Amino acid sequence: MPRILIVDDEKSIRESIRMILEAEGYDTALAENGEKGIEAFRAGGIDAVLLDIKMPPGKDGMEVLSELRRLDPAVPVVMISGHGTFETAVEATRLGAFDYLPKPLDRDKMLVVIRNAAESVRLRSEIEELRPRYRILGESAKLKEVLAVVRQVATTDSRVLITGESGTGKELVAREIHRLSKRSEGPFIEVNCAAIPAELIESELFGHEKGSFTGATAQRIGKFELADGGTIFLDEIGDMSLQAQAKVLRALEEYNIERVGGSKQIPVDVRVVAATNKDLAAAIRDGGFREDLFHRLNVIPIHIPSLRERREDVGVLVAAFVEELCAKNGFAPKTITPRAVAELAGMNWSGNVRELRNYVERLVILTPGREIASAGSGPSGERPEGGMDDMISGSATLQEFKDRSEGAFIGFHLEKHGWNVSKTAEALGMERSHLYTKIKKFGLERKKEDS
């Protein structure tokens, strides 16, 4: 489990937090002042930090935060204070704090923040491990054209609108633009406009003031402020409400934002990269998207071709996925035959690269031995000869095959983690309640040991 460093000058608070976190399975380290906190951090093995702001008479939390960010900017630091103001929270965020919690600490909120911090560490670790493959893979002429435009536009501050079907890699293109830009050391803030309810999107983007609406019990910093000095990626912008579109347009015109319920103009320095799988021209005709916002965003258009348009890239993608997934699951390296690659290349992947990767993961897990000789049953249900043995022949429908595959996948990881549901859920990125539902759905039971 992640190890959390607790830095607070009050022993009772340190001990209280320690007991809460350890009851949830976290490991902890304690420090009574800033100097000892830095010393404990330097010793290594810290995954996240809870740091008090006021710790007289030595270094205060802001000084410690700056030092910790210098030592390792990747470790999330959560600031806590009983005397802080909103300005303090903003300053802490600008200095790189992961989040801010007021005292007295709310147990549930603290656990959510720590869980999010620990998850960010896990995801960052996975990305670092896969960094050589954390890019758009392929050698097709169409993909090379896209990457050439990315390299050209990345060094500017021009706005970019990325279009393409779901699963083609629009987020990867956005991240590559940020990585190659002069803002690469700044934040990359992603907003999935389709996943946020219409009534909350403005608060998510621009923040809100305390009491501005029912449930706004504290001030909140929006994504535009968090992205200051970096890039904000507005994914699925075609799903944004017209009211939110008007505010985004104003932010792009004035480089200022205004929190919900506030009147203060806050300057922001952000580069906007947007993406959509919708036909925005049709949406404009139907009155669902603002034409003026479209022209503001569409300074540099980049269209990502579907996998059907670049089938020659399937072999490169599949080889990378097999290698990655074997390493991720602790399997001995597997190979995939040219025949299987050809079968995969000939299938229609409506979900594009994302669907292909999910299918390859299924093949890696369910194919016995070191060689994947056949692609088995593809996304449309057509099955070449010599499929995945009993898993395929015993399934009457594609849905039945998917259910059996998913059940086998979850069962494998439950056995791998000794049927520790919490660890398995964490490894799979699922809530425990959702995993319990799956166990019941698929009738999974722990294998009995031979006596």
Describe the structure.
This protein is α/β, with parallel strands linked by helices and 451 residues long. It folds into four domains: 127 residues, 3-Layer(aba) Sandwich (Rossmann fold); 165 residues, P-loop containing nucleotide triphosphate hydrolases (Rossmann fold); 88 residues, Helicase, Ruva Protein, domain 3 (Orthogonal Bundle); 55 residues, Orthogonal Bundle (Arc Repressor Mutant, subunit A), CATH 1.10.10.60. 46% of the residues lie in helices and 12% in strands. It has 19 helices and 14 strands. The strands form four sheets. It has a five-stranded parallel beta sheet with strand order 2-1-3-4-5, sandwiched between helices. A five-stranded parallel beta sheet has the order 7-8-11-6-12. Strands 9-10 form a two-stranded antiparallel sheet. Helix 1 links the parallel strand 1 and strand 2. Helix 13 crosses helix 15 and helix 17 packs across helix 18. The longest helix has 23 residues. About 3% of the residues have low confidence.
Q: How do the strands and helices of this protein lay out in sequence?
A:
Layout (H helix, E strand, L loop, with lengths): L2 E5 L3 H13 L3 E5 L2 H9 L5 E5 L8 H11 L5 E5 L4 H9 L4 E4 L4 H23 L11 H14 L5 E4 L6 H10 L8 E5 L8 H6 L16 H4 L4 E5 L6 H13 L1 E2 L8 E2 L3 E6 L3 H6 L5 H7 L2 E4 L10 H15 L6 E2 L1 H8 L6 H15 L4 E2 L16 H5 L4 H19 L4 H8 L3 H11 L9
Parallel strand pairs: 1-2, 1-3, 3-4, 4-5, 6-11, 6-12, 7-8, 8-11, 13-14
Antiparallel strand pairs: 9-10
